[in-house]
Amino acid sequence: MLSMPWATVFLGSMSPHDGARIFQTLLMCMAAWAWVELGAPWRPRRAMPRYLLLAFAIVACASVLTAPRLPHAALEAVSTVLLVLLAVVFARTPLATLCIELPPVLALSGLLSLLMELPRVVFRYADGMAPAASDLGFMYMNHRFLNHLESILLPLLLLPLLLPAARWVRVAAWIGLAGGLALLWRTGGRGTLIAFTIFVVGLPWLLKAQARQILQTVAIAFASGAAVYLLLFVIPIQVLGLHDTITGNAAQRLAGVNDAARLYLWNLALRDIVEHPWLGVGPMHYAHLKNLMAAHPHNSILQWASEWGVAATVALGVLIARLFVRRAAEARRQADGSPDRVFTVICLLTTLVGCVDSLVSGTLVMPVSQTWWFVAAGCALAIADGGNSGRAHPAPTRRAGLALAATLVTAQLLLSVATFMQATRPGSGVPVGMFPRYWNNGQF
């Protein structure tokens, strides 16, 4: 459902962005229950990650409690915890299960994301106009949100092509990957293209000799994407004699970089960091700052440092970097030709791709790409037995986990309803650039 935010149009005036948030909320609530079933509570085995998590939790709670708008700060904090639980659920699922169950979901998601865009292309040609970049991703409110999704989903679509899968899964994945690359080039997603390049460069480093097969698949995918681009956007424009006015394709955007808007947003975030270095201005509270551009700074590090504080950001950054380095070292030591190794490396590099793209965009803020990133991160940490090793969890542990999950889900639902009603109440006009952040209407 996250791949089809337009599915909520039958609800009337609801924005597809809000529809994606609702689907994301339902998925997070399911993840909380699954977390309990897998044996809660979960904590890192090693001491250093535990200390980092504890430090982050203490500072984050203080940041939430001192925020000007407590409901919005609490909603951001609770949502973050539930998304982490979503990642934990995938991390605690055995690799063999993920290798079987995830590829069909990925293939369908890629195919549906492409099919969602094709009618708009056809309608533009029927109107006698060449499809522009802004015509794509139109049900995400902003075609850049489609690029955010592609940063995560396109690398993951290699999994159905590299792992044993049914023929229909492979066909759907090929169509979604080739079509997605064509849309990416048409919309000129610079951050996604740069991040995908890092993904390709990282394959030989982690897979060594085994990378040749995957690089061949990537090369074929790019060739297929070029062919789809010709069929969708070059040949029809030439045959119909249309004037292609598009100025946002990847080559032109890469050749003429203009980041004045981002610099403006980054300067605002830096100002918040200087004024509130320890606890930040409060989770989600960059959106509380009225500005002319956006409700987030288009840089995940600056966003967290300005909203949660420098200390929480450092603790989180060290934890993520530590997990990535350790998991990468484990992947390099695995035997060549192992499907588990391919799965881990693809998910690990996809997680890195999302982090890189988030330095210039809202990949970790918008609901669809945000959800897929946490799924990829959890899959990257999954191990053969899911970390369970047949251990039985005592009843008090399960009760504590159930109480925590119930508290988080209840808080998420109540805060979501309260903030949504406030955002959509009559007369709540939104300043330019203040949406979307959590809900479509980003005003507090």
Could you describe the 3D structure shown?
By secondary structure, the chain is mostly helical. It contains 17 helices and no strands. The chain has one domain. The protein has helices spanning 16-37, 47-65, 70-91, 95-115, 118-126, 143-156, 159-162, 167-187, 190-207, 211-240, 250-255, 260-275, 300-308, 310-333, 339-357, 367-380, 395-423. The radius of gyration is 22 Å and the shape is globular. It is 67% helix and 0% strand.
How would you sum up this structure in a few lines?
The protein is mainly alpha-helical.
Structure summary, number of beta strands: 0
Q: Which class do the helix and strand fractions yield? A: mainly alpha
Distance between the termini: 27 Å
Order of helices and strands: HHHHHHHHHHHHHHHHH
Which residues sit in consecutive blocks of at least 5 with pLDDT less than 50?
none
User: How many domain modules?
Assistant: 1
Q: Please give the largest β-sheet.
A: none
What does the overall shape look like? globular
Backbone CA Rg: 22 Å
Strand content: under 5%
Helix content: 55-70%
Total of DSSP H or I helical runs spanning 4+ residues? 17
Report the average pLDDT across residues: 85
Keywords:
mainly alpha, 0% strand
Topology overview:
Elements: H1 16-37, H2 47-65, H3 70-91, H4 95-115, H5 118-126, H6 143-156, H7 159-162, H8 167-187, H9 190-207, H10 211-240, H11 250-255, H12 260-275, H13 300-308, H14 310-333, H15 339-357, H16 367-380, H17 395-423
Helix pairs in contact: 1-3, 1-17, 2-3, 2-14, 3-16, 3-17, 4-8, 6-8, 6-9, 6-15, 6-16, 8-10, 9-10, 9-15, 12-13, 13-14, 14-15, 15-16
